[in-house]
From TrEMBL:
GO terms for molecular function: triose-phosphate isomerase activity. Pathway: Carbohydrate biosynthesis. InterPro entries: Aldolase_TIM (IPR013785), TIM_sf (IPR035990), TrioseP_Isoase_bac/euk (IPR022896), Triosephosphate_isomerase (IPR000652), Triosephosphate_isomerase_AS (IPR020861). The keyword Isomerase applies. It holds the Pfam family TIM. One of its GO terms (cellular component) is cytosol. This is Triosephosphate isomerase. It comes from Cuscuta australis. HAMAP family: TIM_B (MF_00147_B). Belongs to the triosephosphate isomerase family.
């Protein structure tokens, strides 16, 4: 089953309104492969979601960077899945390692969030990934399988989930996983999906790589059979994001 190449841009907690407008202008003017060949989703901070939605070209989509675990109410500072739906935001990133590590989001909590967001009708970029210590102790697959299982346990329909493998040691460090390291974990994750969810879900779920992806290193990564795209942080704020989107064509030729 063909998996459409997916490129997400995670802008994290960056930008002023002026800078956001500049990034959107660059994206709008870019010549990129058609939406039949690549799905592009950018993820601005909450406060700029409406601005980006108004300005962004219609063939690119938008994700929030988080949402609350259940229905809204007396949860100061939170944004609910219902609010994102109400604004017409189709995607949300959940389980990013920065939230797992800095805000102590547990595997279970992330699983609950993914399940609730899906029920409300959002599509989810669900992030998993090991720390350097976990990799060096040989626990990579155990960790990412446990993170994936916590989501799988609570979800019955995987068609609106993109799984993002983002090794924590590669995020924002300039230390990208080698294509072989990425392929190894992606193929293990697909095997995990095959054995625990089923062959159809394993064949159709996009597993994207994140962690110091750049215009230069995306090309070789994109040709790996189980790398179905990227979740890009730092480079998504720069014009080189366009190069990363274009790596979708390498995938087709691979
Ligand atoms: P990075 O971030 O590309 O800046 O390493 C990736 C991410 O956190 O999604």
């Amino acid at each position: 089953m063909a998996r459409k190449f997916f490129v997400g841009g995670n802008w994290k907690c960056n930008g002023t309104a002026e800078e956001v407008k500049k990034i959107v202008t660059t994206l709008n003017e870019a010549e990129v492969p058609s939406e039949d060949d690549v799905e592009v989703v950018v993820s601005p901070p909450f406060v700029f979601l409406t601005l980006v939605k108004t300005l962004l070209r219609p063939d690119f989509s938008i994700a929030a960077q988080n949402c609350w675990v259940r229905k809204g109410g007396a949860f100061t500072g939170e944004v609910s899945a219902e609010m994102l739906i109400n604004l017409g935001i189709p995607w949300v990133i959940l389980g990013h390692s920065e939230r797992r590590q800095l805000l102590n989001e547990s595997d279970d909590f992330v699983g609950d969030k993914v399940a609730y967001a899906l029920i409300q009708g959002l599509k989810v970029i669900a992030c998993v990934g090991e720390t350097l210590e976990q990799r060096e102790s040989g626990a990579t697959m155990k960790v990412v399988a446990a993170q994936t299982e916590a989501i799988f346990d609570k979800v019955s329909n995987w068609s609106n989930i993109v799984l993002a493998y983002e090794p924590v040691w590669a995020i924002g460090t300039g230390k990208v996983a080698t294509p072989a390291q990425a392929q190894e974990v992606h193929s293990e994750l697909r095997k995990w999906l095959h054995d625990n969810v089923g062959p159809e879900v394993a064949a159709s779920t996009r597993i994207i790589y994140g962690g110091s992806v750049s215009g230069a290193n995306c090309k070789e990564l994109a040709t790996k059979p189980d790398v179905d795209g990227f979740l890009v942080g730092g480079a998504s704020l720069k014009p080189e994001f366009i190069e990363i989107i274009k790596s979708a064509t390498l995938k087709q030729n691979a």
